[in-house]
Each structure stands twice: as structure tokens, then as C-alpha cells.
TrEMBL record:
PANTHER family: MITOCHONDRIAL RIBOSOME RECYCLING FACTOR PSEUDO 1, RIBOSOME RECYCLING FACTOR. This is Ribosome-recycling factor. The keyword ATP-binding does not apply. Belongs to the RRF family. Residues 21-182 form the Ribosome recycling factor domain. Keywords: Cytoplasm, Protein biosynthesis. HAMAP family: RRF. It is found in: Cytoplasm. It holds the Pfam family RRF. Gene3D superfamilies: 3.30.1360.40, Ribosome-recycling factor. InterPro entries: Ribosome_recyc_fac, Ribosome_recyc_fac_dom, RRF_sf.
């Protein structure tokens, strides 16, 4: 029973780390990146639809993203959704066939704001990891009557090692993103 709990915990923690990396990729840096647009929801015929399902995203130049909708009638809605997205600070242009988004240069002050935002997101993901650890510890404690004290102590140590390793992975991703944000 203990190995199943630890395996399940490891899987959930790996998913949490992947979610953290994905979340970090949505914070913009000085260069254009199509990952910034992955979580944008467009009001398409009354239902919020991810932009990636409505259009292809290309990155032809360092600071330009070209959004080519599959359905030309969604062009205005896509343009509006991009314009209304917080933390992007872009003004898309629509030429009737596609939407061109030019990313402005980031000021030093704005870069520091983004670093704070990324650190906050990183801390939120670490809290989530600790929540997974707590839930697994409770599951282990529920087994107290079925298994020996030594096995529980060993399992808790293994759980702590697992948690530390995944927190370190989030810290590494956070460091990389901070360096990317502060790079001029």
C-alpha cells in the first residue's frame, strides 16, 4: 500500500511541476512567444474558446506573432480577446485576413513587475506541492494500524525527499524564467 501512495504522490507532483512550467511560460518576456497566447479565451459564438483552437500562431520575427484564424468571421473576436488580455500590453492589428501582434520592448520597471509575478506564481505552485505532500502524509497516517512504525517513518522520509526534489525543480524553472525576464 505504501508504494502505491508514494507512486501516486510522485505522479501528482510531476504534474504540478509541469503546470508550474506552463504557467511561467504565459508570462511575457521581451521576445514574442506563442505560449503567451495559449491561455487566451476568445468569445466564439457565445462560448469561451482557447485561441489555439481557433487560429494558427506563428512567430516570424523576434517580437512579432501572427495569428491566422481558421474562420475569418472570428477575426474581430480574436483581436478583441488579445487586446483585453492583462499583462500582455499589446495592441494587435487586423488586416482582414490575420492579426499581427508586435510585442513592445519591456521597461526595466515592467521587467521587475513580471519577476514579482513569476515569483508569486512559483510560491503558489510550491504551496500546491506541499498540499499534495500533506494529503499523502494523511494517507500514510491512516495506514498506521496496518503497517509498522519503521515502515511509516521510512515512507515519510521518502515523501520528504520527493517533495524537496519537486520544489527544487520549480525553483530551477523559476530561476530560468527570471533570467529570461531580466535579459535585455
Amino acid at each position: 500500500m505504501i508504494p502505491e501512495i508514494l507512486a501516486d504522490t510522485k505522479t501528482r507532483m510531476q504534474r504540478a511541476v509541469e503546470a508550474a512550467k506552463e504557467d511561467f511560460s504565459t508570462v511575457r518576456t521581451g521576445r514574442a512567444n506563442t505560449a503567451l497566447f495559449q491561455k487566451i479565451l476568445v468569445d466564439y459564438y457565445g462560448s469561451p474558446t482557447p485561441l489555439a483552437q481557433l487560429a494558427s500562431l506563428n512567430n516570424p520575427e523576434a517580437r512579432t506573432i501572427i495569428v491566422t484564424p481558421y474562420d475569418k468571421s472570428a477575426l474581430k473576436a480574436i483581436e478583441q480577446a488579445i487586446r483585453d488580455t492583462p499583462n500582455l500590453g499589446v495592441n494587435p492589428t487586423n488586416d482582414g485576413n490575420l492579426v499581427r501582434v508586435t510585442m513592445p520592448e519591456l521597461t526595466e520597471e515592467r521587467r521587475k513587475e513580471y519577476v514579482k509575478l513569476v515569483r508569486s506564481k512559483g510560491e503558489d505552485h510550491k504551496v500546491h506541492l506541499r498540499g499534495i505532500r500533506r494529503k499523502s502524509k494523511d494517507e500514510l497516517d491512516a495506514l498506521k494500524s496496518d503497517v509498522g512504525e519503521d515502515e511509516l517513518v521510512r515512507a515519510e522520509k521518502e515523501l520528504d525527499v520527493l517533495t524537496r526534489a519537486h520544489v527544487d525543480l520549480i525553483d530551477e524553472a523559476l530561476k530560468r524564467k527570471e533570467a529570461e525576464l531580466l535579459e535585455v
